Amino acid sequence: MTLRLYYHPLSSFCQKVLIALYETGTPFIPQLVDLRDEKERGDFLKLWPIGKFPVLRDEARDRLVPESTIIIEYLAQHYPGKAKLVPKDADEARQTRLRDRFFDLYVNIEMQKIIGDRMRPADKKDPFGVDQARQRLATVYDMLEHQLGDSWIMGRSFTMADCAAAPALFYANMVMPLTGKHKNVAAYLKRLAKRPSYARVQKEAKPYLKMVPQ
């Protein structure tokens, strides 16, 4: 089995897949790509012209698998590991996928909108779009505060939804800090930070955090 992951340790969507790989104990070859390097960027675009991380190359099956959720689902199907991140029960699996998409679409994307705007030239900024993103994140924080208990998103089992939640909430908390009225969300984020798989991901990303605009 030769699985090669094209990624960058700072990317939240890449971190989502890394958490899954570490949780399941699936062996893989990490292929870090620096998109600022012309040659590395060019080689990556030849592989996946969209140019977005992460991308998994399954050399044994001759498959190219993009997109974080699809990669985790692919691994669960073809390379099941010690952790079952997608429940076998159809209803639970659907709810897990819903929550996975919730964090991707309503936390990750909104957070990236805010961070991305900070990197734009002064005459290209989008204050209206940033304000919308902050309003959506506020709504998400309130929703999660009422839904979260003292365990994981789906209850006792750590799932793909938690893989999505960890990096999304970490970066969201950087750009829009959780307040005192979101104690359950803050406690959940602390539990995630103590999870060995995510602690490892954070350690690997730490040298690159200075690249995130404050």
- For this structure, the CATH topology of the largest domain is Glutathione S-transferase Yfyf (Class Pi), Chain A, domain 2
CATH architecture of the largest domain: Up-down Bundle
Q: Shape, please? A: globular
Our measurement of the CA-to-CA distance between the termini, rounded to an integer number of angstroms, reads 41 Å
Highlighted features:
8 helices; Glutaredoxin; Glutathione S-transferase Yfyf (Class Pi), Chain A, domain 2; alpha+beta; 214 residues; 4-stranded mixed β-sheet
Q: Could you explain how this protein is built, in words?
A:
The protein is of the alpha+beta class and 214 residues long. It folds into 2 domains: 3-78, Glutaredoxin; 90-195, Glutathione S-transferase Yfyf (Class Pi), Chain A, domain 2. It contains 8 helices and 4 strands; from the N terminus they run βαβαββαααααα. It has a 4-stranded mixed sheet with strand order 2-1-3-4, with helices on one face. α1 links the parallel β1 and β2 (29-32). α1 packs antiparallel against α6 (160-175), α1 (12-24) packs across α8 (196-205) and α4 packs antiparallel against α5 (127-147). The longest helix is centred in the middle third of the chain and has 29 residues, at 90-118. The chain is globular, with a radius of gyration of 17 Å. The mean pLDDT is 95.
